[in-house]
Design a protein that fits this description.
It comes from Aurantiacibacter marinus. With 324 residues, this protein is α/β, with parallel strands linked by helices. The protein folds into two domains: 149 residues, Response regulator (Rossmann fold), CATH 3.40.50.2300; 111 residues, Orthogonal Bundle (Arc Repressor Mutant, subunit A), CATH 1.10.10.10. The chain is 44% helix and 12% strand. It has eleven helices and eight strands. A five-stranded parallel β-sheet has the order 2-1-3-4-5, sandwiched between helices. It has a three-stranded antiparallel β-sheet with strand order 6-8-7. Helix 4 links the parallel strand 4 and strand 5. Helix 1 packs parallel to helix 5, helix 7 runs antiparallel to helix 8 and helix 8 packs across helix 9. The longest helix has 24 residues. The N terminus is likely disordered.
Length: 324
């Protein structure tokens, strides 16, 4: 069977106008790579510049897609990201922001409206995949009149590229034990399957109490221990690992930062961020702004998720919890 042809002309909206992309990064080499990738993806580069050009002057017309590399944002950059987030939410523009793990909480806190793709220390392959996801998910997009089946095929291809990039990155890293994954690098797509949704209505009966936090932490410890002897990818279940971590935190009356939750997920931060977005949309996680610092945000279990977790633990029984 012939391979699908994805060498399309300039991507266009429903009216046939080329999609424009704005690129802002301080690194000249990175800007060049981004421009090449944008062009290869069939998009049109409207402008490219460093962060100072984005920060300085009055508001400017920006592209439908805005790529920003902001590894260590200062106060001015944070303010600009917040304004950019608001503009994108109102205009429908799509944001892709790359940053460092150290600045993840700050960047996440600045972007509460537009649901951007946030990439953490990304490889070039991850940036390309982010563009592919935008093309596959953007409604009313004309890519040489792609059919819906073609669009799904494109999305699956981006997932496959992510898996390949992950393995190539691992092969290029040294120092990991037998059967274990080397640190860093590209992510794997593990989004919930089509049609996934949280249960809408829970049985109306008194909710049992959540279990002791120490017991939940013991379960988490046991799950993490498997990674000492096997490749952790064999057991990757970020949604469940994050649910467990937030359950323990709720019992302990502790707040969980985005960075901490990404670590608890057991998958690379970029993958974890996509999962967090999915769980927020499903009504299982709540984003809670920090009253003391509006630039920060925390993630908590929603009441619906807490109810479901309490009933789950009551269902499996205290006598077998330690074996979970």
């Amino acid at each position: 069977m012939a391979q699908a042809d994805f060498d399309y002309a300039l991507a266009a909206d429903a009216a046939g106008l080329p999609l424009a992309v704005s690129i802002f990064a301080d690194c000249d080499l990175l800007r060049g790579d981004l421009e090449d990738d944008v062009t290869q993806a069939g998009l049109c580069v409207r402008e490219r510049g460093n962060l100072d050009q984005l920060l300085a002057g009055d508001a400017r017309a920006l592209g439908e897609i805005i790529l920003v590399d902001c590894p260590q944002p200062d106060v001015a950059a944070m303010a600009t990201l917040a304004r950019l987030d608001g503009r994108a939410a109102k205009s429908g523009a799509r944001l892709v922001i790359s940053t460092s793990m150290e600045s993840l909480d700050v960047v996440f806190g600045c972007c509460s409206q537009s649901n951007p793709q946030i990439l953490v220390n990304p490889l070039r392959a991850e940036r390309v995949i982010a563009l592919g996801r935008l093309l596959a998910e953007t409604p009313n997009l004309r890519l040489r009149e792609l059919s819906e089946d073609d669009r799904l095929t494109l999305l699956r291809l981006t997932e496959q590229v992510g898996q390949i990039a992950n393995r190539l990155d691992r092969l290029g890293s040294a120092g990991s034990g037998w059967g274990q994954k080397a640190g860093g690098g590209a992510f794997r797509f593990e989004s919930p399957k089509t049609g996934y949704r949280a249960e809408n209505e829970l049985v109306r009966r008194p909710r049992p109490a959540l279990p002791d936090a120490r017991l939940v932490r013991q379960i988490i410890h046991q799950r993490n221990a498997r990674g000492k002897f096997f490749d952790a990818e064999l057991f990757a279940d970020p949604a469940w690992d994050m649910l467990l971590d937030l359950t323990a935190a709720r019992v302990e009356h502790c707040r969980v930062s985005v960075t901490s939750l990404c670590i608890a997920s057991g998958v690379p931060p970029t993958t974890a961020l996509r999962w967090i977005g999915q769980m927020v949309e499903a009504g299982l996680f709540d984003r809670v702004e920090d009253d003391a610092d509006r630039r920060r945000a925390f993630i908590e279990l929603s009441d619906k998720a807490a109810d479901a977790m309490a009933r789950y633990f009551a269902e499996i029984g205290q006598d077998i919890l330690a074996l979970a």
